[in-house]
Write a structure and sequence with these properties.
92 residues, alpha+beta, Glutaredoxin, four-stranded mixed β-sheet, globular, Arsenate_reductase-like, transport, GRX_bact, redox-active center, Thioredoxin-like_sf
């Protein structure tokens, strides 16, 4: 199963849409709310290069924001990504 991490803010409608899309796939994810957390916001910027939310990572690969996630879904690529196991840190 994929390892999914989403940086969010509570007032962000695109964050809600991204979470709904992933939830509709019956996949769990880790939500990292950056509300009032400058340290987490800086972490998000450092690893994504972006200042907007949501920032979505699947198996430690930066996917982008909601529009990028939605485009993957429309193109049939999201389901493939979600079924890949998280191989980071596992012996080959």
């Amino acid at each position: 199963m994929a390892n999914i991490k989403i940086y969010t803010k509570i007032t962000c409608p695109f964050c809600h849409r991204a979470k709904e899309l992933i939830t509709s796939k019956k996949i769990s994810f880790k939500e990292i709310s950056i509300d009032g957390r400058s340290d987490l916001r800086e972490e998000m910027i450092k690893i994504s290069g972006q200042t907007t939310v949501p920032q979505i990572f699947i198996n430690n690969k930066h996917i982008g924001g909601y529009d990028d996630l939605y485009a993957l879904d429309i193109n049939g690529q999201l389901d493939q990504l979600l079924t890949l196991p998280d191989l980071i840190g596992r012996p080959l």
